[in-house]
Amino acid sequence: MMSSVILNALARIFFVAMLIFSVFILLRGHDLPGGGFIGGLAAAAAYTIVTLAFGATTGQRWLILHPVVLMGIGLFCAILSGLPPLIGDFGGFLYHLWWEGQIGFLELKVGTTLLFDLGVYFVVVGGVLAILFRMYETGSEEASE
After folding, report:
1. For the whole model, what pTM was predicted?
2. Region 82-101 average pLDDT
């Protein structure tokens, strides 16, 4: 596959910027629009840029974990986020709990929703990239025939 010189030159910059933006969207999703799904799509788009610029092998190498492993980790996080209310008898499965505190001048509001959103984030990234890499494999098999 032939990609442009401009895309190759800017792919690394776009990758870093898009990953940072995806984490921002993920963390913003508790009180404002955003969250795990949209953040996961933005992260998958970052890996898609790398895959388009350098090929599927490089995209998979930059991912570090296999996409199916990412989906498994995400599913585990999502299920795990629903367990604390059952243990403490605070409500039913996936009833989200919140903890508020202050560290110096920084006020924190953390809940089980963050773990759920992180799980959704990983499932979306893994799912989209599994499809993308499979399409590249299918395309290369057809091209070699």
Report:
1. 0.85
2. 80
